[in-house]
Automatic annotation (TrEMBL):
UniProt name for this protein: FadR family transcriptional regulator
Organism from which the protein derives: Nonomuraea longispora
Domain of life (superkingdom): Bacteria
PANTHER family to which the protein is assigned, alphabetical: GNTR FAMILY REGULATORY PROTEIN (PTHR43537:SF44), TRANSCRIPTIONAL REGULATOR, GNTR FAMILY (PTHR43537)
Domain HTH gntR-type residue range list: 21-88
UniProt-listed PROSITE patterns: HTH_GNTR
SMART domains given in the database record: FCD, HTH_GNTR
Length: 243
């Protein structure tokens, strides 16, 4: 899985993680996906006892699963009302699991649009800062990710992993802890679009736009790095429109 529940936990960017394996993990995964898919709708009730029977787990496992979902803002429990799905506006939309579950729902074009807009705000600024603050080690990581992208064009999953690694490394090179915390959002956006865009192989201009960003960062040219990233995002928008 490209977006694990622990990937956002960097430099104090704490997110709630949970064991993906085992009955607890399976229950959280399935219930999380169902809630994001509207089953039940916001305000709808959940019966933990019935759910425990449905999943064939103990009440302890179900209670812990509900605690995990509650920490992600998806459910709550109140006296006399029981356990219910919280309003969508109260969901932790930047939680990596919530992002990932949302992307399993087909036709969520609004989320792709929202994340594309966030990328347009964050990544050009990140590229500018990276050009000013990058180290030789940062350049090596970026070069490795770019080379891996070139070598995995025929493998959409691995290609996507390499693409995500490149953009994460770029934000890390900006040396801004708050900006770096947004890597989970960028990774979610890339995971969502790449699995669609790269299903048919590499898109025209993909390698060139990434190379232009890296070259500008290597030259320590902030203006060129920001401009190259804007060109990259513009190309990404064209690729999405062509799907």
């Amino acid at each position: 899985m490209l977006l694990s529940s622990s990937q956002g936990d960097r430099k104090g960017c704490a997110v709630l993680s949970y064991p993906r394996r085992g009955m607890h993990g399976e229950v959280v995964e399935d219930l999380g996906r169902r809630i994001l898919g509207g089953d039940p709708d916001a305000g709808g009730t959940l019966d933990p006892t019935a759910l425990a029977r449905h999943y064939g787990v103990s009440h302890t496992v179900m209670r812990e699963a509900m605690k995990t979902l509650a920490a992600k803002g998806l459910v709550d429990a109140r006296p006399k009302r029981g356990t219910f799905v919280r309003p969508r506006a109260e969901w932790s939309m930047l939680d990596p699991d919530v992002l990932r579950w949302r992307f399993t729902q087909r036709g969520d074009e609004g989320m792709l649009r929202d994340l594309a807009e966030v990328r347009a705000v964050v990544e050009p600024a990140g590229a500018r800062l990276a050009a000013k603050r990058r180290t030789d080690e940062d350049l090596e990581v970026l070069e490795t990710a770019l080379a891996r992208m070139a070598d995995t064009v025929s493998d959409p999953v691995t290609h996507t992993e390499a693409d995500i690694a490149f953009h994460r490394a770029l934000l890390a090179a900006a040396r801004n802890e708050v900006l770096d915390c947004l890597q989970v959002v960028i990774a979610a956006a890339l995971y969502a679009r790449d699995r669609l865009v790269h299903a048919g192989g590499e898109r025209t201009g993909f390698a060139a736009t990434h190379r232009a960003v890296l070259d500008a960062v290597r030259r320590a040219d902030p203006d060129a790095a920001e401009s190259a990233m804007r060109d990259l995002l513009a190309q990404a928008g064209k690729d999405e429109a062509a799907i």
